[in-house]
Amino acid sequence: MAHAGRSLLALRLSPPRMTRRLIGALALAVVVLAWWLATLGADVEDRLISPVILPSPIEVLRSFPVLLKERALLQSIAATLQRVMVGFGLAALIGVPLGILAGAWRVIESAGAPLALFGRNLPVAALIPLTILWFGIDETQKVMFIFIACVPFVYSDTVSAITGVPDRYVETAQTLGARPWQAITKVLVPLALPEIYTSLRHLFGLAFGYIMLAELINAEHGLGYLLMASQRRGLSEHIILILIIIGLLAFAIDRVLLWFQRGLFPHRVVEE
What we know:
The chain has 12 helices and no strands. The two termini are 25 Å apart. The longest helix is centred in the C-terminal third of the chain and has 35 residues, at 180-214. With 272 residues, the chain is mainly alpha-helical.
């Protein structure tokens, strides 16, 4: 028992998978318990926190049918996912090939480094007025907002994955007579692909968060639009429920991408 406790507290040592899941579930249970205790009481006067500020877990769950049937929840989820997939897909389509070229030929990376640094550090909210000016306020603006916000990160992470491949693999390929394009397509890209995929998986979650900002502008559907409309109408139980749905969606998408990752790269150990 004492040995198990010491191993859990060891530096940089990850607990076994089931132990990690159990610890995560316990932490979540503690948060829900604290929420329930803070909102316990039949009357407003009996509660520690007013239901206007924080409704109880039961009140939040009871509001789900209204959110689903009367406020078009499924259409909003579909609209948000479509915008993220198109915008992030464009960022991957442009950013990954550019990153591969820049990682292979460092002169290209030298040229792109200032722009990538600028794009990564630009406050994402500052892109909203610019994308409205360039693309209007319809669907194109929301998709391009995700594209512009994500492509510097996709590019930089791809460059990092390519440059992280040990030189000995490239030198061995060149010794065997490989041309530059062969060294890229048969050595650099295959070895860097697991890292590139991991980066894209994590950045997809980032794009999912960014779309909430874009959907505050002239959207008829979308989880960001639902959040803003709920805030205007004072529906705090719907705000919390939408945030929970966003978290569950992000978790489900990450698990699907992780499942594909383990199938595509079975030789790589991927931590959850």
